[in-house]
Design goal:
Number of helices: 11
Oligomer: single chain
CATH class of the largest domain: Alpha Beta
CATH superfamily of the largest domain: Medium-chain alcohol dehydrogenases, catalytic domain
Structural class: alpha/beta
Order of helices and strands: EEEHEEHEEHHEHEHEHEHEHEHEHE
Distance between the termini: 12 Å
Radius of gyration: 20 Å
Helix content: 25-40%
Largest sheet: 7 strands, mixed
CATH topology of the largest domain: Quinone Oxidoreductase, Chain A, domain 1
CATH architecture of the largest domain: Alpha-Beta Complex
Number of domains: 2
Shape: globular
Strand content: 25-35%
Length: 338
């Protein structure tokens, strides 16, 4: 069967279309014929061994997110049946509860083989059935970006009707966060460097927008929006080093910063005083567990939430899809069709 794998040595040049033997489902396992995959920022990091030893070993099949159909099941499988359409979970061993090193070490697409293969075998515990209303392309986008946003907005952020939420950017996680925050009745501000993308965010329900390229001190600019409570209840922090000091100024006393991204750097230069004096909670968010995934799916189905899709590439054009993702400027998830 066809696979894309990093082989021989690390580096994007060593990501190659190759062949592997057909897999078979063993006890407690399911064989999935993949239909679509979706890319995330981490998929650009994995080929360069950007997570060190935690990236995995070669040869490694990349990409964590996708959707497929169950073609066969092993003995004792009860969660799914042949013909079910399923998404693999990002963390294969994190069913519920708190994170642990072992659970964090079970991510698809590094260190475990990912979904860029015609067929994959996974534990029945590591798949979730997909609601019928979603297309294959829409379903493929959910395991990493959508669940990360759900964890930030709902599981950890505990957004409620009337809360004020600020979301940084208009990437995959940000757009899901916007959808989930609005679903829970929050008032949402989106910041971006693109007026065109901010206009599209407004069409999706954003109540306020700020172009941070034109208004660098967006914390000050947002004060009229949050004057009734002294800051945002929740900020989805995707920028990292450059944005955290502003986020600390923009969050309300007792508010939460959901730390997800480090797009502007890993090293921060920010005063710890506001965190302590204003009792701000910094909550790291790394995707989430299967129970959260299933809760998110149920909410999406109830409210008919649809992901924002971008460009679709053929299986053989994975490197072109990576380059498209790397260059930026797109709106919506980048997809791979099998």
């Amino acid at each position: 069967m066809r696979v894309f794998q990093i082989e021989g040595d690390w580096g994007i040049d060593n990501l190659k279309l190759s062949e592997r033997p057909e897999p078979e489902a063993g006890p407690g396992e399911v064989l999935i014929e993949m239909r679509m995959a979706a890319l995330n920022a981490r998929d650009l990091i994995v080929p360069e061994r950007g997570y060190g030893r935690a990236t995995g070993e070669l040869p490694l099949i990349p990409v964590s997110d996708g959707v497929g159909v169950v073609k066969s099941v092993g003995e004792r499988v009860t969660r799914v049946a042949v013909g079910d359409r399923v998404c693999p979970t990002y963390f294969q061993n994190w069913i519920s509860g708190e994170p642990t090193p072992a659970r964090f070490a079970s991510a698809l697409g590094g260190p475990l083989d990912g979904v860029m293969a015609d067929r994959v075998v996974l534990s029945e515990d590591g798949v979730v059935r997909v609601p019928e209303y979603l297309t294959d392309a829409e379903a493929a986008t959910l395991p990493c970006a959508a669940l990360t946003a759900w964890s930030a907005i709902v599981t950890h952020g505990r957004a409620r009707a009337g809360d004020k939420v600020l979301i940084q950017g208009t990437g995959g996680v940000a757009l899901f966060a916007l959808a989930f925050a609005k679903l829970h009745g929050a008032q949402v501000t989106v910041i971006s460097s693109s007026d065109d993308k901010l206009a599209r965010a407004s069409e999706m329900g954003a109540d306020a927008t700020i172009n941070y390229r034109e208004t660098e001190d967006w914390a000050r600019a947002s004060r009229p929006i949050t004057a009734d409570r002294g800051g945002y209840d929740l900020i989805v922090e995707l920028g990292g080093a450059a944005t955290l000091p502003l986020s600390l100024r923009a969050v309300r006393p007792g508010g939460t910063l959901a730390m997800i991204g480090v797009l502007s750097g890993l090293e921060i230069n920010a005063s710890l005083g506001p965190i302590v004096a204003r009792q701000v909670r910094l909550q790291g968010v790394t995707v989430g567990h299967r129970d959260g995934f299933e809760a998110m799916m149920a909410a999406m189905e109830l409210h008919q939430v649809r992901p924002v899709l971008g460009r679709t590439f053929a299986f053989e054009a994975l490197k072109d899809a990576f380059e498209h993702l790397r260059t930026g400027g797109h709106f919506g998830k980048t997809l791979i069709e099998f």
